[in-house]
Amino acid sequence: MLPNVPRALWKSETRVCACGAVIEPIRWVDSERILHWPGRCKECRNREKEIAQAVERNLASRRSRRRKADTLRSRIAEKIPQLFYGAHVRHLSQPLRDRMLNLSSEKGILLYGPPGVGKSYSMCALLRHYIVQGYSVERIVYDELCLKIRHTYTSGESELRLVRQHQSVDKLLIEDIGTTVGIGSQESNFSLRIFLLILDKRVENLKPTFITTNKSLDELGKSFDERVASRLTAACEVIPVKGRDKRKWNS
């Protein structure tokens, strides 16, 4: 005996859903002929369909977030060296983090200080922050940049294409500016020309450039010339970094 079901519905041609509602058969179009009997009433079927759709939307959302996370990890791994892959702005000192994150959009940073005090780590942490925000970033060691451009003279590659790649990226980090010569020595005209080509175009287009170096602005002015020191002063927030050599300390 079915509870809460009227006696009139006990006939064999009447079927009742688990919720107690009468199940309407599926019929042929414009016909009294029954095609089949559903297992649930229309309301329960609609409710099950809504639940299934909600589950599918949730799964699709999870898959989308997983793809975005994988893409983000790939971008970070591509641009950040393995040594600094775990660098994050939250690991930096509060004063340095505040100065880095409160820059105007067109302003870059020049970090200078002795070797091993964490300049590259700090800059890679900032680059990671920009990658997460969706900016295009590029990181290169200055000596490597000069070697790549010299290589175009014999390889047939376009020097201009390589320079423009570094002129157009949203955020550019150039490591170890001025380390190809000692303090008091002069960089080559080639190095000066390449640096000014990239820096001037980026300044014109309000694109920030981030730089690490072991030399002060005065020392960079002597290694290149006064134009470089003047442009860096205008284009970058100059931040000295002090401390002990972490490489020696951790060795």
Structure, explained:
The chain has nine helices and nine strands. With 251 residues, the chain is of the alpha/beta class. It has a domain at 80-250: P-loop containing nucleotide triphosphate hydrolases (Rossmann fold), CATH 3.40.50.300. The strands form three sheets. A five-stranded parallel sheet has the order 6-7-8-5-9, sandwiched between helices. A two-stranded antiparallel ribbon has the order 1-2. Strand 1 and strand 2 (22-23) form a beta hairpin. The chain is elongated and about 100 Å long.
Quick rundown:
The chain is an alpha/beta fold.
SSE topology sketch:
Elements (H helix, E strand, L loop, with lengths): L14 E2 L5 E2 L2 E2 L6 E3 L5 H38 L14 H8 L6 E5 L6 H14 L4 E5 H14 L3 H10 L2 E5 L13 H16 L4 E5 L3 H7 L2 H10 E5 L5 H5 L1
Helix pairs in contact: 1-3, 5-6, 7-8
